[in-house]
Design a protein that fits this description.
The chain has about 190 residues and is of the alpha/beta class. The protein has 6 helices and 10 strands; from the N terminus they run H-E-E-E-H-H-E-H-E-H-E-E-E-E-H-E.
């Protein structure tokens, strides 16, 4: 009888883990709430200069006030999925900027790796370094020692408007751009998992 009660309780607990909301169950931190201020960040990394060359930089949340921000977290420079995702955002960068939006990537890689990755892939947007996962945790995106592949769309007032978890790199930048257009036209906030 005790064994049956134990197994029944274990089954209920297991089921509860499967059906809990994504933001409460985020591995590596808690996903921020849509409609709430996006978690702040203050990180070193690399960014393109006014002359087009990529240099080491220090960026924080305030640097993007007044503009939309597509903030994407990814595991590692030079891996196949991360390269595909980075190229997608680069391919659509002019479209993002024409809609008053910036793109920023975040991973645990250091500035030197980011500098090499930007140069190799011709990336003209900032890549920030989060080696200990402090900011990644704030965004529910930390799977030590890497950032999980999540994307957040933040409005010009710093409010989280849309998010994607378990991102598939192929076509993702276009998906975010489409959502940006929709958001700017309708004012809705959504979760895209």
């Amino acid at each position: 009888m005790q064994r049956r009660a134990f197994l029944g309780g274990a089954a209920i607990a297991g089921f509860a883990l499967l059906v809990r909301p994504a933001r409460a169950g985020a591995i590596g931190g808690t996903l921020p709430e849509i409609g709430q201020p996006a978690p702040v960040f203050d990180l070193d990394g690399v960014a393109p200069g006014s002359d087009g060359t990529v240099r080491e930089a220090h960026l924080d949340t305030e640097a993007f006030r007044g503009r939309w921000l597509a903030l994407y977290f990814y595991p590692k420079d030079f891996t196949s999925g991360c390269t595909l995702e980075a190229r997608g955002f680069q391919r659509h960068l002019a479209s993002f900027r024409s809609r008053n939006a910036e793109v920023v990537g975040v991973s645990a890689d250091d500035a030197e790796a980011h500098l090499s990755f930007c140069g190799s892939e011709g990336l003209a947007y900032p890549l920030l370094s989060d080696p200990g996962g402090l900011v990644s945790r704030r965004y529910g995106s930390w799977l030590a020692p890497f950032s999980a592949r999540h994307t957040f769309l933040i409005d010009p007032d710093g409010v989280l408007r849309s998010l994607w978890t378990a991102v598939r790199p192929a076509g993702h930048a276009q998906e975010v751009l489409t959502e940006l257009r929709r958001m700017q036209n309708s004012g809705d906030a959504t979760i895209a998992a």
